[in-house]
Amino acid sequence: MIVLMAPLIGRAQVNDTISNSLSSLNGKNVVDALSGRCAGVQVINPTGIEGISSRILIRGNQNITTNNQPLFVIDGVPMYNDNGLADVVGADWSFSDWGTMINNINLLDIDNVYILKGAEASIYGSRGGNGVVMINTNKGKKQNGLGITYSVSYRLTQPYLYRDVQNKYGMGVPDGYEVSSSSSWGPEMDGSDVMWWDGQIRSYSPQPDNLALMYHNSNQVVNNLSFQNAGDFGSVRVSFTDSRSNGIIDNNNSSQTTFYFGTLLNISKNVRADISFTYLKYNRNNCPVIGVSSDNISHNMLVGFPRSWKGIEAVDYENEDGTMKIWDNYPYYSANDSLFWNLYNHNIRLTRHKTYGTVKLIYDMTDWLSASARTSVDFDLDLYDTRYNASGSDGIQGAYYKTDLQKYYTLDGDFNITAHKNNLFDSKFSAALTFGGEMYYNYHYGLWAGTGTWANPGLFTIYNYTSASKAQLPGEYRYELRTNSVYGLLNLNWDNYLYLALTGRNDWTSALPIDNCSYFYPSVELSFVPTNAFKIDWNFIDFLKIKAAYGLSSVESVPYQLDYTYNVGLLGGNSFSTRPIVVPAVNLKPEIHRTFEAGFNVGMWNRFGMDFTCYNIYSYNLMLLSQKNPSSGAAYEIINAGEMSNRGVELTFGYDIVKRSDVNLQTGINFAINRNRVESLNGAEYLVIGELWGAYGPAIAAKVGDPYGNIYGWDYVYTYIDADGREYGPFYDADGKAIPLVNSDGRTYAVSDTRKPVGNTSPKFYGGLNLNGRWRDFSFNILIDTKIGGEIYSGTYMIAMQTGQSPETLYERDGNSLGNQGVILNGFIGVDENGNPIMNDIVISNYDKYILNYGGKGDYITSLGVFENSWVKLRELSLTYSLPESIVKKQKVFQQMQISLVGRDLFYIYKSLPDNISPEGTMGAGNAQGLEYAFYPDSRSFMISLKVGF
Which of 63, 350, 815, 849 is the most exposed place for a label (fewest CB within 10 A)? Predict the structure, then answer.
């Protein structure tokens, strides 16, 4: 059982129904498991591929270019949800998203999760600016019997959300069938026999299932064996978990073995130990490629294969001798003819060894004074082994080998002394004071090397090359950061109705210059509980608390921004060094987040609870890259000049619908609104965060005065300029909609000269609904997750329209516009002598309309692909049966038995995107959210699990 709640420092719990139970363990990872469960916490979780990066935000984006995801703290071990796919960049970008290390946290070992927001996270100083997700593992509880528990689960994952396509017209152009065409603008697929591109006669017929040809159901089996118990010695839990799964495409599987040990140990009367240790080994083969890549199956299905594609080469890609089959007349020029060979023969294997744990000693010196010391370590060793099998009979052609070793090491330790006293000076006053210090050290190291042209067939080693000049030079990088801190916490309580919590933390970091390396982060929180203060009958109000808080926090600074770092290479046998294009910061400061918040908690009728919070966050000193004059020899300079604000409200309430001994039914709703605004970019018009197709496609950018996450792209032109330079327009139709300008040939719309804002990704609100109940020995849980508002650019839609795959193209192709004559672009083509618009009346083919006006890379009108992205999803449905206690007591073997059925990511109750495009198919887990292209189909999963205690 995982319980999600806020920490209770100087606070009181309102009602158990406000806590959200993560009763199902079917989430892909701990981030995915938080979807829809906590107000103000937004999870962006692409569901197409198992094991890829998820994104989590607490109270929206607060940084412009740096990380916006929270700090994770697992039993005191700090971790970040990074190292996966961040922001899309480049003209023809592609990426294999191997996921983040947070994915490897074993859900079966988690006891509870706390979310720290705003001022609550100030105690983490330079790492708490984006909030904190605190995870505590299960360190054992008192058990009957042996205390041994065995569980096994089987999960079936089914790809299901394929985009809608037309199945009427196949390969070719409007003039007729064309065997070499990758588009679907050909004649109607009537089943007639035609000559196929491989010289065989086949029927020219619809292929409604070809999008699903390369996908199949996947499965996962998880076995867990654990022991736990508690007594005078304390408590202990030992757990072993083995997980094995395959992917929804071939040659893609993973496994993880996890060993966990946790204990709360009473060493003596006054000394206790809190110890946890986790070791895991994770293996993954061939993470699917995402993006504009010839190895992305979804990309090829979109731009390369027409609707009449039969998938011949998908099963006939290899010769009898095991070499790659070469097709002499392969027609699909936009597709990769080696796609399917590569799928099985271009192998990359990730082997990850991860060890993390904490040892904490607590010494109770007196009944009012205690001291503790903790040391935590997180060590990761990742090995990426790349092996491309030779495609030719010589065993050399197409062969490649690369090894990539990455090491991550974090050491964190602290000490503190706490004094606490109730009824201080024989009064109603209670106080607790803590003073401590912390040392944090983070180190990354990477080393990689690969081969060039091979000298020997079948030899996978970096020494296998024909000459030194044809070997791939090794690469190396280092990352090192140290932060030292002192902190203090003061909690004051007057008669359990007036609380004051003060915190202060000072950090010294190696990433900042000596004059700015020290920063102080204070916070203050005041709480008043009228129901305890006034000893009167509040009738239906059981509990009421009013609260307000203020705090400063920051995000961890990135090292090596203070001086030049040089890249070393080899040219013509001679070594050379290159200076970076970014000028280091002169007076770098930490990015600061200043938070004000206020709200109340209320409990009513002994069955209703509500928590309301409103907040205002102002972020300043945000790091930006300022453009410099190219004549200076550099392109950018790092400066602290960005400013951004976030304002919002969070509302959580729970209600016990039925409260009886044999029947219980509860509901919980969380709801959040966040409005942010970019306040300053140091005079820049806008700042690009990420781009699809580089400078030739849409971008996510920040603009002063707008919410964070503007979509920039090419837009319609609404004004006309005559030969004398006079400007006319814009003009509006009867519905008040601006009329676009059409070029003089009538074939294309006029396109803006530069990219303009055409949408924004910020949602209007997001939240979740949780309904759980129990009837005798049965329990169930329903979770609905939602996001309303915010826009997305769908490159999938734009390309599907251009290539004739979209069902939307059928209306005009079937003669429903001007019959067989064609279409007329809706717009005006100029003005008359009175300055009135002349509406376009030039008839063009529907082929020209879609080929010339829809598309991705290039100056196509981006606006055509921008849509509102609202959705409501049935995230989880579970049913559990527990063996009755009466039966358990009668038999001498089992202490408990439980069977569960769980469905996850089942379906969208509502979604606003066209053509069945995935609402959660965004590219990457970085700041550039709102760009979608050629994503893999969404998947849903069904799990059955059995848990037995002895």
Answer: 815
